Amino acid sequence: MRYEGSVYRPPSEAYSLIIQATIGCSHNGCTFCPMYWDKKFRTRSFDEIYRDLREARREHPHVRRIFFADGDALCLATDKLLPLLEAVKALFPECERVGIYGRADNIKRKTDDELLKLKEAGLGIIYLGAESGSAEVLRRVNKGETPEDMVTAVHRAENAGIQVSVTFISGLGGRELMEQHAIETGRMIGRMGASYVGLMTLMIAPGSSISADIASGKFEPLNSRDIMKELELILINADCKKDCVIRSNHASNRLVLKGVLPQDRDRLLDQVRRAMEDEKMLRPDKFRGF
Ligand code: SF4
């Protein structure tokens, strides 16, 4: 299988068959994100994608999961996604779950009925990068979406039976907005009702506008102790009403956390507080990655 440019996928899709349904990201404007700089956004035709699926079928006798990339493949219109999901069912009857990257805006453009149809056709999980629960942090990083957009999108997808895995980025508010970022992120985790939350830690991409802000003194990045403090605040404020699997198992993280909120909150808090006292528990910078 030949891919166009670098291909990214969530940690939990490490063993999935990855299929590029789109190339790049339709937004491609977040100040911290270098993932699709090298690509001009475009959608791929059904025939192009179907060719990849057929080729993959020949190469892989057993495919348990399929993941549609690139950055917000969910931007494809429902009448284009449904035939793709049907093709997956026909070619890979053993496939247990189909996942996709999406933005809140992609969900907003779909009706409740369309979301239900996507679920029935096999779409099992949407990976959505929320990054922060703070409207001000989102504005500064040019996310192009608000916390309310995202909470509504998560509710609608989960109500349609599609699980949502939402990512937040520790350190994204810098020192100035650290507290606001942490508290609002925790609150958003508590009220949005996502099945999964993934925590990443800000990595500074050379050439990004956030790296220019650091050079000019406009953005002060957090050290590892601050990141632990922020994680503590996020967890304290995350009052989940239904079970939410929370993980920080991405290569960018300094501390690996895994649990289910609300029941594991005290254990996770204890782990974070111990890491504040003992930096040996933290992944060194040289082993962190995008
Ligand atoms: S963070 Fe997501 S929405 Fe923002 S540019 Fe990167 S892929 Fe696109």
Brief write-up:
This protein is an alpha/beta fold and 290 residues long. The chain contains 10 helices and 10 strands.
What can you see in these coordinates?
This protein has 290 residues and is α/β, with parallel strands linked by helices. It has a single domain, classed as TIM Barrel (Alpha-Beta Barrel), CATH 3.20.20. It contains 10 helices and 10 strands. The protein has an 8-stranded mixed sheet with strand order 1-4-5-6-7-8-9-10. α7 links the parallel β7 and β8. The protein starts with 16 loop residues before the first strand and ends in a 13-residue tail after the last helix. The structure holds iron/sulfur cluster. The site of iron/sulfur cluster has 11 residues, from loops.
Helix content: 25-40%
- Count of beta strands: 10
H/E element order: EEEHEHEHHEHHEHEHHEEH
The CATH class is identified as: Alpha Beta
Average pLDDT, rounded to a whole number, is: 96
**Helix-strand makeup class:** alpha/beta
Number of helices: 10
What is the spatial order of strands in the main beta sheet? 1-4-5-6-7-8-9-10
CATH superfamily: Aldolase class I
Shape: globular
Major sheet size, sense and barrel closure = 8 strands, mixed
Number of domains: 1
Strand residues, percent: 15-25%
Name of the CATH architecture: Alpha-Beta Barrel
CATH topology: TIM Barrel
Query: Which kinds of small molecule does this entry bind, naming each only once?
Result: iron/sulfur cluster
Separation of the first and last Cα atoms: 23 Å
Low-confidence stretches: none
